[in-house]
Design a protein that fits this description.
Length: 74
């Protein structure tokens, strides 16, 4: 897997994911039953590569917005 924990790596990942026709996405959190749960890991998989994104080290995840908004990406 490719570890994503810097803004530069996130920008590169976003560029790669926008070219994909299909993605798998998974999230891990510290607890779904806690008052203030927190997403601790976001996983993306393409046909070729798995990516592990550390949202605790990245303050701005907005580069991912176009990927989730794109109806052409399944």
């Amino acid at each position: 897997p490719v570890w994503i924990s810097t803004p530069v790596a996130l920008q590169k990942l976003a560029g790669e994911l926008t070219r994909q026709p299909r993605l798998a996405v998974d999230t891990e959190s510290n607890s779904l039953h806690a008052y203030r749960e927190q997403v601790c890991l976001i996983q993306f998989s393409t046909h070729e590569t798995d990516y592990l994104l550390d949202p605790l080290k990245l303050n701005d995840l907005s580069p991912l917005a176009p990927i989730f908004a794109n109806p052409k990406i399944e």
